[in-house]
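Tokens for chain A. Residues wanted.
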């Protein structure tokens, strides 16, 4: 994916489930991956490892290709064939109280500019992530080295996941000597694939009813 600035960028990302405490009570969004609580519905953090275990949904937190796919950060549409799942939407109206408190402790966040410290707050449900098709094996096209293409093809044919790095067809000026234009079936971004798989695990653990009732809430910081 295309990088548009040299300033380092990271992501703050949380997973929420739409849950109810008792059978006849209303559901509400509750964080299910980061904060430890004595009770799922408590409005404060505790230091003990109670309630649930921390799950790191992203292996490499500075993945600019992933950032672009999630919210259009660190890239632009003119240089990428695979467009963002969604532009930044801001925070949801209803969200986990502790995540909101954590967010509000930061300085003012700009939804559009990457020149400020905190920017592009957004959220995506597991359904939205799945509907993009980006987490699955998909048809890809770009400039690659033939030996790396061969390795990727063989690895995937053996039932393993592999992400082949490539130069987008929209940026021929970045093609290096020895690269060839090829098509293949592969994974666009494995951090996105693994993120969705881990959300599936959390969905099962918390008996969440459907893919629209589990989501990630996130923003970026420079």
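Reply:
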């Amino acid at each position: 994916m295309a990088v548009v600035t040299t300033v380092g960028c990271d992501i703050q990302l949380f997973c929420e489930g739409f849950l109810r405490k008792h059978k006849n009570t209303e559901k509400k969004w509750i964080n299910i991956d980061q904060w430890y609580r004595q009770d799922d519905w408590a409005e404060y953090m505790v230091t003990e490892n109670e309630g649930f275990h921390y799950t790191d949904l992203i292996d490499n937190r500075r993945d600019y290709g992933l950032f672009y796919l999630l919210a259009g950060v660190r890239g632009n549409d003119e240089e990428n064939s695979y467009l963002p799942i969604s532009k930044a939407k801001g925070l949801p109206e209803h969200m986990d109280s502790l995540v909101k408190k954590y967010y509000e402790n930061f300085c003012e966040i700009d939804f559009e500019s990457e020149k400020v410290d905190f920017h592009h707050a957004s959220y995506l449900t597991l359904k939205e992530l799945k509907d993009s098709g980006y987490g699955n094996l998909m048809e890809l096209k770009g400039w690659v080295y033939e030996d790396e293409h061969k390795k990727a093809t063989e690895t995937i044919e053996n039932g393993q996941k592999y992400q082949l790095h490539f130069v987008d067809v929209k940026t021929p000026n970045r093609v290096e000597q020895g690269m060839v234009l090829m098509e293949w079936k592969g994974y666009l971004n494995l951090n996105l694939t693994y993120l969705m798989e881990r959300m599936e695990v959390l969905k099962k653990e918390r008996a969440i009813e459907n893919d629209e009732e589990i989501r990630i809430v996130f923003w970026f910081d420079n």
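Residues 137-186 form one domain. The helical segments are 64-71, 97-104, 126-132, 146-157, 190-205.
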